[in-house]
Amino acid sequence: MASCVTGTEAAIRATACRDGDEASHLKIVAVFAIFLTSVFGVWGPVLLAKYFHGKPLYDKAILVIKCFAAGVILSTSLVHVLPEAFESLADCQVSSRQPWKDFPFAGLVTMIGAITALLVDLTASEHMGHGGGGGGGMEYMAVGGLEMKEGKFGADLEIQENSEEEIVKMKQRLVSQVLEIGIIFHSVIIGVTLGMSQNKCTIRPLIAALSFHQIFEGLGLGGCIAQAGFKAGTVVYMCLMFAVTTPLGIVLGMVIFAATGYDDQNPNALIMEGLLGSFSSGILIYMALVDLIALDFFHNKMLTTAGESGSWLKKLCFVALVLGSASMSLLALWA
To answer: Where do transmembrane segments lie in this chain (predicted)?
Structure first.
């Protein structure tokens, strides 16, 4: 956040840290470092899921990974993205202007992001309901307290179970795709902000911090992709999109600075950063609480089953959720 106070000591320090050539070298290092750590983070859960597929503990392991991922995504939205969005729009260069000083736009745009995610969720769910409920022209009727289809009487329960499983898979794929959209918004902001900065004192520690940040965020997204059961080509595409977004954002930020002279402290850059950050935060908050945490803890059969096994797994998933959120929150000390 830019300071509007022009003290002598602060001015000397800012001048000493502002070095375009060294900043450019550090940005090139950041591009490769962040790309490699992003690949490691997002591919880890996917490869583990492939290795353990078909083994006894596969479903439980994927569920625990997903709960860890939910904690990471929730912390990303509330501890990293949202405070930075508020900070950008509260900067004195922005908050002294109209209309930014008269209304809390960061909160408004966060709400719009959450409502947009809900709209996408509702639209897709309605589409899946219409797509799965046709039944080839056969109608449902009550027989012995169960819903049975006219036609092949012996196979209808199996057909219904398969249909439910397919709807669950489609829901998981939708969650992964919307989640990636929110993360990509966030990654572009991180990359562009770093790319526009000319402050070597800021960039140097950010390289290490953002590398760890991408590992944990990649684990979160990779866990959801692994459970969704995409085809191999789609998995590669989604993982690659996550891995290249922040590095491409850094390159884009460097191009913007070269073309316009805007750095990361320019008021227009701060406004764009604040609005995009607020919107992506709203998406991530909704996805973490509704489509990840609530869906698994209250509607997943493995966690809602009564008995010692279900209770033990629920506790393990809760611990994974806390560890995911705590580890990502800890990174806020550096990035």
So the answer is: 28-49, 61-83, 103-120, 178-197, 203-223, 235-262, 274-295, 316-334
